[in-house]
Structures are given as C-alpha cells and as structure tokens.
Backbone:
C-alpha cells in the first residue's frame, strides 16, 4: 500500500471518530437529550476550541516545555542505560546469569508505587518524573537490545572471526547492526512510556506540566480541559515518534523498505 493512500485512510479514521463523537454528544436521541451527556464526554468542537485557546493564549507553552524536558531526559537516559547494560549482559553470560533474578524482580515492580518514593528522594521538581520515566524506558530498551545481540547468527560470527575481525570490529559490524532493529522497535514504544512517566509523576505531585494541567481540570470536573490535555499529549507523542522514525530511517538505510511494497 502506498503512503498517500495509507495516510488518507488514517486521516479518514480520525475524522470518522470525531464525527461519531460529535453526533453522540449533540444530536438529541432520548427525551430531547443526546445519548452521551456533554457534561461527562464534552464535544470535539469544544475540545478543539479549548486546545486552540490554550496555545493562542500562551498558557500551555510553559507546561508543555516542562513535560517535554522531563520526557526527553527520561527517554535519553533510560535508552542509553538500556543499550549499554543490554550489550554488557548479552556479551557476558556470567554477568547476565548472576543478575537475571534481580533484573526480573526490578522489572516486576509496579512503577506507580515508585512514584511517591522518587518524589521523596528527588523532590517535586523534574527529577522525580525523570526517574519514573527512566524505570519505564530502561527495561524496554534493555530487553530488546539484549535479545537483539543474542540473536546474532553463530554462522555470521564464525565467518567474521575467520576474516580476522577483532572484538571491536565485531561490535561495529556484527553486533551493533543486529541490535539496531530491535533497539529502534523498543524506542518507538519507549517514547510513549517516557511521556507516561512524566505525566503520571506530574499528576501525583507537581506545580507545572501537562499532567498537572490535566489533574487541575479533573479536580473541578472540567472534562473539556481533560480531553484538551489528552489531545495535546497525543500530538506530542506523534511528533516525538516521527523524530525517532526519521533517525531510524537514517541509521537503517540498508534495511529493505517494506512499506513500499504493494498488496
């Protein structure tokens, strides 16, 4: 399927959802009232209008900056840590075997429980949110990089060693390319989780950020404000994911382009 057609279908689905939402919250059905009460579900036009006002007034920019900073820091630090530790564990079997139960136990911890602890340790500033986002990103990247390196074909390794490659050359020409596809697959997921960590941390305790704004709207039953905040978060994630995709396409130029195939 070609990209213009795919993009057109994606836009059509979004428009269809908005039209259905509008009809369900504005068209009278039962006793002159819509099926979904606007007080509880708002309307797409009200949400779009509120979102526009937030940007036009400049009110949202500072909160967006705070959440963006927390998300980027959590994403970069968590991804870097996951890549380094994933490579180290994959290349050293004894190290992986010794720490395996501890890694699994740490990954099993519910992150929401850690949020108050991070707030106690790092305060209500950005670093408690970065720490929460780090715990979400790190394990996703770590497990994917670890698996990507372990999946390297023994035949490819044997041939590379026969050609005289040392460990540094093996890392650059064999292990690294093998892990890249797995790594970027995890990074697409990690972008959303880094944002979740930032927003959840702000929701539980902060003085600024998109999570703070959503919590503020919820506290006064402002459903339109909540949905406006969620819409901004959605746009935010799409932009960050597009940046990751651009970097992925730049680094994986050797990979076959499967999206260009027609069905």
Residues:
């Amino acid at each position: 399927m070609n990209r213009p057609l795919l993009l057109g279908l994606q836009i059509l689905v979004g428009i269809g959802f908005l039209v259905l939402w509008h009809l369900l919250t504005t068209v009278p059905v039962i006793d002159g009232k819509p099926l979904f009460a606007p007080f509880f579900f708002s309307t797409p036009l009200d949400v779009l209008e509120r979102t526009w006002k937030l940007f036009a007034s400049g009110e949202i920019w500072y909160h967006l900056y705070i959440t963006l900073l927390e998300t980027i820091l959590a994403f970069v630090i968590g991804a870097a840590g996951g890549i380094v530790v994933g490579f180290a564990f994959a290349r050293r079997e004894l190290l992986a075997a010794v720490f395996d139960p501890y890694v699994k136990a740490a990954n099993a911890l519910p992150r929401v429980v850690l949020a108050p602890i991070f707030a106690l340790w790092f305060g209500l500033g950005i670093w408690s949110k970065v720490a929460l986002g780090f715990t979400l990103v790190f394990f996703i990247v770590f497990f994917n990089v670890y698996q990507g390196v372990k999946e390297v074909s023994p035949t490819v390794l044997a041939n590379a060693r026969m050609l005289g490659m040392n460990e540094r050359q093996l890392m650059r020409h064999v292990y690294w390319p093998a892990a890249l596809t797995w790594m970027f697959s995890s990074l697409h997921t990690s972008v959303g989780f880094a944002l979740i960590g930032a927003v959840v941390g702000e929701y539980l305790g902060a003085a600024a950020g998109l999570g703070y704004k959503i919590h503020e709207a919820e506290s006064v039953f402002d459903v339109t404000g909540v949905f406006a905040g969620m819409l901004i978060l959605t746009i935010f994630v799409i932009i960050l994911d597009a940046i990751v995709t651009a970097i992925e396409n730049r680094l994986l130029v050797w990979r076959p382009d499967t999206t260009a195939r027609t069905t």
